[in-house]
Amino acid sequence: MKGALLGLLVVFSVSAYAHWADLAVAEVTVGEKEVRMTLTLPTGLVAFADADRNGRLSPDEVQTYKAELERFLSEKIRLNAGGHWGRLAIGSVNLKTLPERPNITRKSHSTLQLTYTWVEPIGDLNIRYDLFIPDAPNASNLMTLIRGEVVSNTVFTPEKRDFTLNALGKSQTETPNFIVLGMEHILTGYDHLLFLLALLMLGGGLGYLLKVITAFTVAHSITLSLTALNLIHLPGRFIESGIALSIAWVAAENLFRKDATKLQRSRWAVTFLFGLIHGMGFADILREVGIPRHNLLVSLFGFNLGVELGQMLFVVPVFLLLLLLKRIPWEAKVRWAISAATVVAGLYWFVQRAFLSA
């Protein structure tokens, strides 16, 4: 059992940041004969142009590899209007003019300016997006399209690579895509899942489950919305360290608080407090990768709903398994071992995020 728990700890530790690293974001402005796209993407997709291997393309690197970048991206991101493909030109972007994007400071993403031009005015616009990290099922591009006064959002995935914007710029915000994105985010956010697991390891029946999950849901929904709308902002290191500490705290309570019944009655309060921190972490995928603010409310609703659905997909099966576990004589030892491993994972992440991250 100890070996299995250690293996899980290793998997969780390696995968802690995986749920944002494969994402790209783009803001597209459609003009009369020109489409301008500000694209932030994982630098690994264009590693051939990262000459100094620092994880981010500099203006000099963009200029040096301009022809190679244009050739590569013209095959991966194709725009068609009136049966004609747009002609692509690439330039660098001054990061000082962009919203704060903490993930870029982690030297994992680069931002490029893509300009597509046509001879004739643009009518219906079809976008074919094929720029994904290989074998990364969670790879996505969150794209906002602005045409006149109309704003549309879409999410490109390996399973969904085409999008059409009609000549009127009719809004085609795709809430289902953001629901899926929210589900993927929590189901690959192992720190959030480990926090939920620590809550469940205390035991308790359906009443306890409903109280703590409701507290967590209300709390993280509040800060997810406020953070994504840029109404509140805390440094990413503080948020990530707080999430790690919340995991260790709750799991340690499972081990060292003697009166489990009393703890079950009061745990909703600490769950609400920590849920506020987790909500800011959920918003990380929207803020840090740099999703534009246009038409964000609808996208935010879909993303938050996806988080809730993903949460239930994890919590309900685990809760049912724990009910079955009560029939086993060594149930208490299993809970203790899982809580102990969770404390170790939480403390490991806390040290890593608070003191060792760049």
From TrEMBL:
<feature type="transmembrane region" description="Helical">
    <location>
        <begin position="268"/>
        <end position="286"/>
    </location>
</feature>
<feature type="transmembrane region" description="Helical">
    <location>
        <begin position="336"/>
        <end position="355"/>
    </location>
</feature>
<protein>
    <recommendedName>
        <fullName>HupE/UreJ family protein</fullName>
    </recommendedName>
</protein>
<feature type="transmembrane region" description="Helical">
    <location>
        <begin position="178"/>
        <end position="202"/>
    </location>
</feature>
<feature type="signal peptide">
    <location>
        <begin position="1"/>
        <end position="20"/>
    </location>
</feature>
<feature type="transmembrane region" description="Helical">
    <location>
        <begin position="298"/>
        <end position="324"/>
    </location>
</feature>
<keyword id="KW-0472">Membrane</keyword>
<dbReference type="InterPro" id="IPR032809">
    <property type="entry name" value="Put_HupE_UreJ"/>
</dbReference>
<dbReference type="InterPro" id="IPR018247">
    <property type="entry name" value="EF_Hand_1_Ca_BS"/>
</dbReference>
<keyword id="KW-0812">Transmembrane</keyword>
<keyword id="KW-0732">Signal</keyword>
<dbReference type="Pfam" id="PF13795">
    <property type="entry name" value="HupE_UreJ_2"/>
</dbReference>
<keyword id="KW-1133">Transmembrane helix</keyword>
